[in-house]
Amino acid sequence: MSLGERIAIKSRREIDQMREIGHITAEILLELRERVQPGVTTGQLDELATKALEERGLNSPFLGYAPGGVAPYPAVLCASVNEEIVHGIPGSRELQEGDIISLDFGVEHRGWHGDSAVTIAVGEIVPSSEADKLMTVTQDALDKGIEQMVPGSRLSDIGHAVESRAEKEGYGVVRQFVGHGIGREMHEPPQIPNYGRPGRGPRLRTGMVFAIEPMVNIGSEKAKVLKDEWTAVTADGSLSAHFEHTVLITDNGPEVLTRIAGSH
Length: 264
Description:
The protein has 4 helices and 14 strands. The chain is an alpha+beta fold.
């Protein structure tokens, strides 16, 4: 890791600011979850997210984001349905009973960022169905990864825990997209793969803040990006789930900054 890629250690004051923005991120994402139902379009969900930001005087780190020369992202929300893994652009797609949808949402306020995602069912879903099991396992994989975020652990321990949980069920863990550090920028060092051997990489320290986000497919881990340059889908058309939290490492273990009562 080069000097320019050192992992930032947040001060107590900076952590307080990140707690605030994490709470707001979780609050808005919960509002969006409650509006998901059959007949709603992904574009309408984006409109609701935009309104929530405007009412609070907040900014979207997603809108206009254009890494590596790709077309600027045109929305404040990523809404990925069924076989869409991440970065689904909201639009006219109407949600149907039995769909699953990943809502990935970020907030910027006073120079600090929060980032979180959840996958939920549209309408009723059959308990223990493929979709239900996929969402349960992916959320559990996120929790297993978060459990590794303690001082002294190695960075790769996070991804190894995620991969171990998902592959135990025969699922594919997406390798094309990764978690990341977060703070003054939405994407800070280090990159955090959701796979790998344990015991490698930098040691984790109190004050580090990461966005942990497993993306898990029922089938192959392979992904492809559509012509819109953003929407990533499973290569084999299988269902995919995505969960994410912004997490702080403390002396007492991981603190999830984007979790409030009623949220995942």
